[in-house]
Structure formats: structure tokens, C-alpha cells
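The instructor's notes for this session suggest beginning with a concrete chain rather than abstract definitions. Hand out the sequence below and ask the class to guess, before any prediction is shown, which regions might be ordered.
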Amino acid sequence: MIHKLETKIFHTTFGRNEPAQRISSGDTIIADTRDARGNDQLGNPLPDSMKPRPDGFEYSTSNPLVGPVYVEGAEPGDTLAVHIEKIELNRASAWSSHSPNFGSLTGEQSARRLLLNEPLPRLMFNWSLDLERRVGILALQNSRMKKIELPLHPFIGSIGVAPRYGRVETALTPGEYGGNLDCVETRQGTTIYFPVWARGAYLAFGDIHAAQGDGEVCGSALETTAQVQLRVEVQKSRAIEWPRMEDENFLMTTGSLHSLIDAVRVAQVEMLNWLVGDYGFEKWEGWQVLSQASTMRIGNIVDPNFTVVVKFPKTLLANSS
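After discussion, reveal the predicted structure:
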């Protein structure tokens, strides 16, 4: 069954928020997203009536999420497979920025003030998106070059399920539930496997990026909107610890922690567990092959947790049983 998802409240947290839709395993959802500041495809801001009610506390306004979607039959110990079937950019513009107390050049994230130097200036950059040519165009004001063009490679910046132990996490934070991974691999044609930590899974997503470099080092990508189509499948009694991904060419595992080296370790161990558990590798032989054949990408080094993606070529699995 295909569901056209109409989100009434765009939550900015991952958790057991009131579901926008209930679906079954095998169903498809189609939804229009908002950008990271809440603007829609026409540039209209998110109205107050569609924002979560804070009820006496301050909430993060970044990355309003579509959903959550309650998946019938999904229970702790299962895996939720999310097939990204389509990401159609639907706006001819994107924005990016760098701002005080955020990004890879500062340790002053969020409300903390950890450095004595003057913070970075707040600057906005407005990109034009040529959707037919699939390029982003930035007019340069103070450089020798007059403009720059980048190929577009849209992906979902923030996608995940309700976190473990009943926690609630902001849509800016990645973790064992997925979340704000900001990795370019969460694109059309990729399947993401999420561990289910709460009955119903509570899948939510948003924060579409038209393009981004590894690390999202300035703190934002080419932030825009899209219509997204996902097919959702419950894999019963298949327990995993961290999100995994797969496309035509690679198996991929993720680790998201504030220590970058710990994120590397988690992603590497998760890949080794996958090779041993599903593809029959002996543990230390698998570690040897993984050590020589894998590659790594840094999804982000700006969020409260940093994300690393380990990629293993599927061509090496041709003879596995």
C-alpha cells in the first residue's frame, strides 16, 4: 500500500512522538520535506501551528522531521529496512551557512562556550539549483572566480527511529537509532537497516541535502526540500546494534559518537560482525580482509556526535556462501 504522508506536527526530536501515520511492513510512504530551518518548497516558513508544543521548555528548532511513522509489527529485536526509492528535489534554491559556536572550526557547539577566541561570523550563502542540469550554482562576490558549479547528489541528512532505552534525541544528533547522520550515502538506491528499539519503530526523516562534502565542515550542506519515497520492511528477529546500509556496490556500517576514533571503532566492528554473521567469515580472517579492502567516509564532524561510515565492496562477497 502507498501512503501519502501529511505531517501535522514537524517534530525536531527522534522518539515516541505522536505518529503521523500507521503503516504495515511492505508499505510505501511518500512525503514532502521541509528544509533544516523549516521552510517548504516555496520558501514559506513553518507555521506555529505545525511546531511541537514545548510546554515550558526550550526545544531545538533545527531539522523539522516528517513523521514519525508507526510500523505495525515492528518490535525490539527486529530490524527495520528502509529502501530509499526516490528523492526528488522540488525547489530551485538551497542555502548554506556558517555561524557562531557551530561547525568543525569551533568547540563552542550549542550553548557551551569553550573557547576564548571570537566566534565565527554568521554568514548565509544562497545557492541556485539547476534541477535539469543537476548542478548547484553559487555566485561568488569576493573571489577571482565569478561563480562555482557543483554536481548535485541529493540525500537525506536526518533519518532514524526512536532511540534505545526510551530516550529522546534532537534531530541534530546521530546515534544508534540513525538520526542526523549527514552522510552522503543515504541517497536514492540505498537501503538503511535500523535496529528497532521501540514497538512501532517510529521512523522519522527530513533535512534534505542537495549536495555536501564529507564532514559537513561548515555546519550545513546545501539545505533544501524534496519529495521522498520510502518502502519500509520489518525483518523479524534480526537484531543489530547500529544502522547498516547497502547499495548496489557496497555494504556500509555506521558509528556515531563524540569521539571520532570511537566512531571509527564502532563502524569497523559492526562491519566485521556483519561479515562474520551473514557471510561466513572467520573472525580474524574477516578482520584481515576488512583491513585491506574497506574504505571510510566521515559523515559529519560538527554534530553533538560525529559519524563515520565504513564501506566494504560487495564484489568480494561473490564466492561467499
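Then share the key points. The mean pLDDT is 92. The domain at 2-90+155-237 is CATH 2.60.120.580 (Jelly Rolls).
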